[in-house]
Amino acid sequence: MTTTEPAAAAREIAAEAARAYQEALGERLISAYLLGSLSYGGYSAAASDIDLALVLTEIGDGDRSAVESTTAALQERSPLHRKLSVFWASLPALREGRDDGRFPALDRLQLADDGRVLVGSDVRAEIARPAASELLLESAGFAIAVLATDKVTAEFRAPKRLLVDKVWFTKAVLFPVRFLYSGTTSTGRAANNDEAIDWYLGLADAPAASLVRLAREVRGGHPLEPAEPEPELAAGLVPLYRYYIEAEVARLRASGAPEDLVDAFLDWDKRLG
């Protein structure tokens, strides 16, 4: 490693990974891109992943195992390598707005807006931008699948891991902030943490402002000592999520989303309350 600057060190890992995927996939890899905060700014050594996107000529039977085994081998090299997160799909699918590998809509949008080529040629102009309705349903589905589980809901009400795990702390606090802000943006632009936080803290009626400020500080390198976040989480985390849920239910109903998805949010709200 030739530098100790966090974002530069992470970019070196990304470039190393891009070369490894190029070797594993050969000529079928059209391009590898840098995504996320390393491409659009705001990288946090404390909380950010190292996001890469791979665009292939087509998806073959062995591609999933090739990508997964290459990723696993890279992640074993160092703690920084373990931050590696990889999205991949074929160019024909991306042209049609489909995911035939591992490439959620929000990450496809980030690729179109902010992807930075590491190897290969730039094909972003050919990528279909997801519709606002697809982004809404995807983010809502993620929230229910990942954040609305009984285990996570219990953690929100009586935090333990949140008091000591700075990555989980920042993600848990800032997920609803980003989701809320994304609902106010024009179609097809992915929100980043910094602008979402600024927007949220500018709202007059938003709950848990001090908790959101603390999450921003922890992303910036502020140490997470249990005595500091414990009262903030107790006072603000559930109100923050119920505020998000109320807004999301209104958006889902206005968009004509499936009723079972709306019901899942209403059930989550009851369990939080």
TrEMBL record:
This is DNA polymerase, beta-like region.
